[in-house]
């Protein structure tokens, strides 16, 4: 039995869809009942509650581990790793971030670095996936286009290796159900390194609408995110990642998706084409 955590997020939602299509037995851990997930595939569980984790992990042999970004994320994931080991889970596929390390320059790198270290030391079979920027972020609240079809970020010509969450999920599923991925760390990217200027041009070409990117300062970005109600801790974390991308310290394109799944990752133009209606809704 596979247990999926983070089942309603960008990657988890796609993984649930793939598992349902495949017929592989699985369940999803949730803190409370959710309309989008049928009750017969959910189990209650909370990363902060050890007893609930042990109950959720009963009869589970493989775990997809994804905890949302937050200041105590390392502790929460380590709770899950320890409970999984005690419950007899044999394999964990964990979502991490590029260049995760206990000595990383960004907070999220350090948090993931600590939970990665616990996973490596657990004695269980493990695989770590480190995705680059999600294509889905292009219509997200912190890194996407607004209603005027404009994206304002402090990135200049920084290159992102945008990857579709579906490709991350497909890589995760293969690592969960197939052999040959134990003790592997995969940097998961799309097939192109693109600036936001280029990304805006691609979206424009595919949709027939005018999308544009405007470079702003980090201070302007911080003020805008805080004004929109985004938590200050998360704002600081996002700005740290923007700085890493500007410095070219996040890594380049690789072929992990194709090596693991047997097919190449989707190009941004393919993603926009598949989601053209969502992009065309910007600006009315």
Mean pLDDT: 95
> Strands of the biggest beta sheet: in what spatial order?
3-2-1-4-5-6-8
Largest sheet: 7 strands, parallel
**Portion in strands:** 5-15%
Tell me the overall shape: globular
Q: What string gives the helices and strands in order?
A: EHEEHEHEHEEHEHEHHHHH
CATH topology of the largest domain: Rossmann fold
Helicity range: 40-55%
Radius of gyration based on Cα positions: 19 Å
Number of helices: 11
Q: Please report the first level of CATH classification, the CATH class of the largest domain.
A: Alpha Beta
Describe this structure in words.
This protein has 284 residues and is α/β, with parallel strands linked by helices. The chain folds into 2 domains: 2-131, Rossmann fold, CATH 3.40.50; 132-163 and 189-251 and 262-284, UDP-galactose 4-epimerase, domain 1, CATH 3.90.25.10. The protein is 41% helix and 14% strand. The chain contains 11 helices and 9 strands. The strands form 2 sheets. Strands 3-2-1-4-5-6-8 form a 7-stranded parallel β-sheet, with helices on both faces. A two-stranded parallel ribbon has the order 7-9. Strand 4, helix 3 (73-87) and strand 5 form a beta-alpha-beta unit. The longest helix has 15 residues, at 73-87. It is globular. The mean pLDDT is 95.
Search tags:
UDP-galactose 4-epimerase, domain 1, seven-stranded parallel beta sheet, 11 helices, alpha/beta, 14% strand, 2 domains, 284 residues, Rossmann fold
Secondary structure layout plus pairing:
Layout: E1 2-4, H1 10-22, E2 26-30, E3 42-44, H2 50-56, E4 62-65, H3 73-87, E5 91-95, H4 107-120, E6 125-131, E7 150-153, H5 165-177, E8 184-188, H6 196-207, E9 212-215, H7 218-227, H8 232-246, H9 256-261, H10 268-274, H11 276-280
Parallel strand pairs: 1-2, 1-4, 2-3, 4-5, 5-6, 6-8, 7-9
Helix pairs in contact: 1-5, 3-4, 6-10, 7-8
